[in-house]
Amino acid sequence: MLVKRSLGLGILTQLSTAALLPRQLAYAGNYAIANCGPANTALLHTLLDEIYTALLPAILDAESTHGPAFQAFFKDAENGAKVSNLLANITEGAPAFPPADEISNGAPAIFCLSRKGELSGRTSTGAPFDAFDRCGTRLAASSLTGTKIIAICPLFWTSPKLVTSPAAPSASNQPAANCLRLSRNQGQFQGTTSDRHGAADLVQYKVWVVLEELVHSYIYAAFGLGSHSNPLDIYDSNAAFALSAQDSLLNAPSYVLYVASIYGHCAAFPSSTGRELLDAAPDIAANQPTSETDPASFEPSVVQSIVLNIPGVS
To answer: What SS3 string covers the chain?
Structure first.
């Protein structure tokens, strides 16, 4: 069962309950998929099926808490139940944002955007926003914090850098070619800041983009923002490795790096002693997206109300 923290922020999503045209609304389990068209809806359905398959071994690994991937990205055995429960909620499409309405049971709902005006609203400070503005030229998808909405941007479909899904795991359990690699001293992940220390190769797939946005939704439903003013979005593998046990639970990319590593049978991870070679408390602000690099990060991030302007949805 999903544990929802009461934040007292009054961030209920305000959605129209107008009748939806069948061609615009489909379901993959409890997840609603809207405004995506037949081909893209089918692909999203496939990606959600693949996420389900990928999460099962990660849930078992998190329950054990002893695996090297879990130790690298979540540190503390006390996080095991929290990580496994959150991932299990995603496999079930648990109601993260009740009550249910005509769109969903409270599970995240995926909306494809193609232009301004389709999905707008106000933040918790009363500032107006249009979800399409968050797309810009760099963003493939965005979870609208405080709501059930996951917005899929045009770049998700058009970017040549986003492959649909990684290769299926090898029957011989050999690590995938794109697994994270260790530096020579084995104390941290190999790579540079430009490739986020190997993370860019590991997670360059549409399936992990969708997983990240689902994780963002369920993190907020379960834990809120913690002590932070914005959702954590730290993808650099060394920075994610250096996060505290508490912050690792709030960082959606930590879950994606973890699940992708388990799925790919990845075996090379720094030890806890290697973490001592990195900053004990990484500069979170320096590793967060900025308004210049990621339009979705503009302040404030919590959304108060949503208005849909898609035919059949008002």
So the answer is: CCCCCCCCCCCCCCCCCCCCCHHHEEEECCEEEECCHHHHHHHHHHHHHHHHHHHHHHHHHHHHCCCHHHHHHHCCHHHHHHHHHHHHHHHHCCCCCCCCCCCCCCCCEEEECCCCCCEEEEECCCCEEEHHHHHCCCCCEEECCCCCEEEECHHHHHCCCCECCCCCCCCCCCCCCCCCCECCCCCCECCCHHHCCCHHHHCCEHHHHHHHHHHHHHHHHHHCCCCCCCCECCCCHHHHHHCCHHHHHHEHHHHHHHHHHHHCCCCCCCCHHHHCCCCCCCCHHHHCCCCCCCHHHCCCCCEEEEEECECCEC
